[in-house]
Write a structure and sequence with these properties.
alpha/beta; 473 residues; eleven-stranded mixed beta sheet; Amidase signature (AS) enzymes
């Protein structure tokens, strides 16, 4: 078995099961604390100490972290406290506790990617997103567990609501840490489903921004036309403020100028119409999750939103038909584009990479340029079909995953609901508004490319409509 730089799942680790209530999650948002900072009634150091207490209590069961530097975090929180006291915070996220997926470079902590090739490897720079967050005053707690190179073997992290279940992947540790209340924001990545799915599993908010709207500099590359920086947060406000703090300081991935919009989350806005999507994931979705989703869509319709779906709109039916056939060509895109660096990793020895990576390399080796061009053409057809709805709809509603987190630690779950908007390249928000039994079930609000702020406004209205009594402790 391949040795990994993170310790494997311990069979004697503490177990826990906590019933999920969307109105009273484990999340601990940062945004409400800012008014207390201004009044001098609370401080970023107070916020940090509360998060450290949660880490100390919950990390043995959840195993979200690879490395931590709490002494550095305390120094950063003290500096932020002084800025708030003087009325000169760097940004709305000054003092926000943040964790960083271990696929993303940090100058002060190793970046090991859950593979022995990079065990102990130390970058001499921060990734663009990490540098921007530091410049905005964020407090970095540590690095969080990823699957191997964000596409292979799972790590030891467990779901914060039920430790017998996966947190999802590949941004496993960031989603679990935010979902458990250890941090207010977590950096992740998404090449197929790696931000939206784990956020949905762990009861957290998230944003996969439009392709290129956030910088990927300093992220370990996987597939150049699919890779995104992902933002997982304790509230919609935290997610948007974190994303904008990055975009305003680091821009996007060239030639994209960067995410556009206000510094803080736009005001919620009721949509005229939404497109309801089942995608190829509906067939594998259990009855409880189907019922929760249908009940949410019914509530939106009763609130006055026109719902377009395959039963009442021919264009939606045509889009669903496209989505039902994306699995093969989407995997072709990944396999072709990931030949490097995955082949370079395997060059260290076949035993140095896991089975999933071996399978991707075999698939890529069996392809030719014509097959890759066919996959690119299929993606363009999907993007055109989605863009055609812009004159008459304000977004798309679907699940984040085909059901709640699965009872498996080796497999991080189906990608069939999260993958489509990676391919579309438009914004997608994970909203922890639903439950299936005692487990979180994320609702996904997807939007049109480079209209991320519009999608955020609609996401805020969905939250306020479906979760009117949310708890912002």
């Amino acid at each position: 078995m391949t040795f990994l730089p993170v310790e494997p799942l311990r069979p004697d680790a503490p177990q826990r099961r906590i019933a999920y209530d969307p109105a009273r999650p484990l999340l601990r948002p940062f945004a409400p604390a800012r008014a207390l900072f201004r009044a001098g009634a609370y401080s970023p150091r107070d916020v940090l100490e509360a998060r450290i207490a949660t880490i100390e209590a919950d990390e043995p069961a959840i195993a979200a972290f690879v490395t931590r530097d709490l002494a550095a975090a305390r120094r950063a929180a003290d500096a932020s406290t002084a800025r708030w006291r003087d009325g000169r915070p760097f940004s709305p996220i000054d003092g926000m506790p943040v964790v960083v997926k271990d696929m993303i470079e940090t100058a002060d902590l190793p970046t090991q990617m859950n593979n022995p090739i990079f065990a102990g490897w130390q970058a001499r720079r921060d990734a663009a997103g990490v540098l921007a967050l530091r410049e905005a005053g964020a407090v970095i707690l540590g690095k969080t567990v990823t699957t191997e190179f964000a596409c292979g073997n799972s790590g030891p992290t467990r779901n914060p609501y039920d430790t017998t279940r996966t947190p999802g992947g590949s941004s496993s540790g960031s989603a679990a840490a935010v979902g458990a209340g250890m941090a207010a924001l977590g950096l992740g990545t998404q090449t197929h489903a790696s931000t939206i799915r784990p956020a949905g599993y762990c009861g957290a908010y998230a944003l996969k921004a439009s392709f290129g709207a956030l910088p990927v500099g300093g992220l370990a590359p996987l597939a150049p036309t699919l890779d995104h920086l992902g933002i997982i947060g304790a509230s919609l406000e935290d997610v948007w403020a974190g994303a904008m703090a990055i975009a305003r300081r680091a821009g996007g991935t060239p030639p994209h100028p960067g995410l556009m919009g206000p510094e803080e989350a736009p005001a919620p806005r009721m949509p005229r119409a939404l497109v309801r999507l089942g995608t190829l994931g509906w067939a594998e979705t259990p009855d409880g999750s189907r019922a929760a989703f249908e009940a949410a869509v019914t509530r939106l319709a009763r609130a006055g939103v026109r719902i377009l779906d395959a039963s009442n709109d021919a264009e939606v039916a045509a889009l669903e038909a496209l989505l039902a056939n994306i699995a093969d060509w989407a995997t072709d895109l990944l396999a072709w584009e990931a030949r490097w660096p995955l082949a370079a990793y395997r060059a260290h020895g076949a035993g140095m990479v896991g089975e999933r990576i071996q399978d991707l390399l075999a698939r890529g080796a069996a392809m030719d340029a014509a097959r890759y061009r066919a996959a690119l053409a299929a993606r363009e057809r999907l993007r055109a079909a989605v863009a055609a709805f812009a004159p008459r709809a304000d977004g798309f509603v679907l699940l984040c995953s085909s059901g709640p987190a699965i009872a498996d630690h080796a497999f991080t779950g189906s990608r069939n609901f999260a993958m489509p908007w990676t391919l579309v390249g438009g914004p997608a928000f994970a909203l922890p508004l639903l439950a299936d039994g005692d487990l979180p079930l994320g609702l996904q609000l997807a939007g049109f490319t480079d209209r991320d702020a519009d999608a955020c406004a609609v996401a805020g209205w969905l939250r306020d409509t479906l979760l009117p009594e949310r708890d912002e402790r």
